Amino acid sequence: MIILENVKKVYNVGSVEVAALNGVSLCIAKGEMVAVMGVSGSGKSTLMNIIGCLDLPTSGVYRLEDRNVAYLTDNHLAEIRGREIGFIFQTYNLLPRLTARRNVELPLMYSREPNRRERARYALERVGLSERANHLPTELSGGEQQRVGIARALAQEPTIILADEPTGNLDSGSSNEIISILTRLNREEGITVVVVTHSTEIAVRTQRIIYMLDGRVVADKPPGASFRKRVWEQ
Amino acid sequence: MSPADTLWSALTALWVNKLRSSLTILGIVIGVAAVISLMSIGRGAQAAITEDIQSLGANQLIVQPGAATEGPRFLGQGTGSTLTLDDAYAMMDPVWVPSAAAVAPELSTGGQIVAGRANTFSQVLGVTPEYELAQEVTLSYGDFITAGHIANRSEVVVLGSRVSESLFGLRDPVGQTVKINERQFTVIGVMARNETGVWAGVFGETALVPITTAYYRLAVERTTQGSVSVDRINVQVKSPDLVDDAEREITNLLRLRHRLTGGNDFYINNFQDIIDSFEDATNTFVIFLGSIAGISLLVGGIGIMNIMLVSVAERTREIGIRKALGAKRKDILVQFMGEATLLSLVGGGIGVLVGVGISRLADGWSLAGETLNTTFNLDIVLLALAVSAVVGIFFGIYPAMRAARLRPIDALRYE
Asked: Which domain range does residue A157 map to?
């Protein structure tokens, strides 16, 4: 359960204060699949960073599973990132000198999981990359790299997956594959999925679309004709 | 992260930048090798100097009579006649002075020594057979004074090399007669010229006679105590460590023998103070050499810090990713500290090998006329390794802390 109450995030750019989030209140239930949409600079990524405990709100309250993150220590936040939240990035963010398997093992190394080899193998199997486990990221295609990214998130056995424009750098074929994996994980394993996207194709496959503008939530509804129309109007 | 993971991750990180890592390691190698080789050379020199001073008499005590308090004027320490040959014999008793290896009393006079038409003036020392051992006298001709000569007050003499030369030239004088203060003495031996060491030349200008002969036949003054008085008693202690014990034992013995209740009527001088100050000086010298070499180790350490700062900057994004995946500050800190420590330890290890190699090679080389002896000890190796590890940790900690303190979001955004 993700609850945000009037969350603001202000960055100091030189002497100017820029509000990336300007009072966001949200509730995302366990097992939901949510798309976050909006133009560049609307605060989508900032929202994701706060939900993912990579950043803390300037004001307002963010509760993750009934814990106010403002009161958590650095170490506790790191533990949450390592065990409960799986990140999927637009640029994959794999470590270039580690093989796919090593990349997938990385979060398990930090959470000191035992049998991490097994779990990494299983995670790669689930994204269909068992044969490429010992390849370096540079030897993989973009779609494959993103699947390694998903496997890395899966290996943590997270309750939430946060995907920040996961298909932004991919062709449509690979994009479809990635979306299918994400929806399957949501549907079959009940993992909460929050995905930031520009793509309406992804958005319509979710249960709920949050539309952001200037650091505020301006629309929050299931994908339907009216929303699609609204998007096209923008 | 487990220690194995840390090591593995440090190894791969360093392996990726092989050239950079090896150059950084080279800096440490040079520093450690310099510390080890210079300190080995310094220790060698120290050992040589200490040996020189030991031969001067690190384990020597000199017992002298107190000042004469009778007579018209004060003549100073050693002018009294309170020490006797019997005191010296008592000091030879291991029950009383177990720390003494040899006790050699001497009675000093001087005189004209004449052989045929040649003459010279020299110091004439009355000694006992123990003198040969205590003062490490070596003979080039003949024999030393024996106990029989002491008992018989024999008129025999052992000449110093220069005395012998000025009287007899380069001939073997053993069996010849010389006149000392108009008395006939038979030459029974000649002392070898002491070319090296601090005693060089000392015995050259001396003639040795039995102490009883010196007292009854040559000495000007006599005591009323009925025993042969001596000017000084040289005591060779079994080892330099026992000098203090020996001093205490001799003091006890002499106070009992002299039935003293007040102050002592004798003085005991030792070389320990001189030795100590020489050792301080040579230690300073070794530390000085080590510090000079230490500067190059410091430079190597700065190299590590430099490269680690570059590495942290280059890998900011990696740090962000790791933090997003659950790495704690401590994990990042340990990761970068591990890399820095590994660099310095590998450098330290190779440096030890190189340093040991250099000191082995330098051993026996002559430099400016002096043979270079290197003393190589395990403690230098341990010191160098410990210092290089400390250098790695010290110079690694700042970059690593910078890495660990990065906020995950800033690190992830870094391009």
From this structure: 32-49+74-233
Chain A residues with CB under 8 Å of B320 CB are 93
In this structure, what token pair is assigned to residue B66? 């107190």
Q: Give per-residue pLDDT as tens, B194-240.
A: 655 445 556 678 889 998 888 888 876 665 556 778 888 888 888 87
| CB contact (8 A) between residue B317 and residue A93 | yes
Quick check: is A82 in a domain? yes
Distance from C-alpha of A37 to C-alpha of A41, rounded to nearest angstrom: 11
Among chain B residues, CA nearest to A81: B326
Of the candidates B315, B302, B301, the one whose C-alpha atom is nearest the C-alpha of residue B402 is B315
Residues in B closer than 8 angstroms to A79, CB to CB, are: 326, 328
Structural domain contains residue A163: yes
Is the residue at A186 inside a domain? yes
Chain A residue with Cα closest to B411: A54
Cα distances from B93 to residues A119, A128, A136, B90, B103, in angstroms, run: 84, 96, 86, 5, 10
Size of interface A-B (CB pairs under 8 A): 65
Q: Please report, in tens digits, the pLDDT of each residue of chain A (234 residues total).
A: 899 999 999 988 778 888 889 889 999 999 999 999 988 888 888 899 999 999 999 999 999 988 999 899 999 999 999 999 999 988 889 988 889 999 999 999 888 888 888 999 999 998 888 888 899 999 998 889 988 999 999 998 899 999 988 888 888 888 888 888 889 889 988 999 999 988 888 888 888 999 999 889 988 888 775 555 555 555
Cross-chain Cβ contact B325/A97 below 8 Å: no
**Yes or no, beta carbons of B328 and A152 under 8 Å apart:** no
Contact list, B329 vs chain A (CB under 8 Å): 74-75, 78
Residue A41 maps to a domain: yes
Q: Amino acid letter at B188?
A: I
Decide: B187 and B178 in contact? Cβ < 8 Å.
yes
CA distance A227 to chain B (A): 31
Domain CATH number, residue A89 = 3.40.50.300
Number of domains in chain A: 1
User: Between A142-155 and A172-189, two packed helices, what is the crossing angle to 10 degrees?
Assistant: 20
ipTM: 0.91
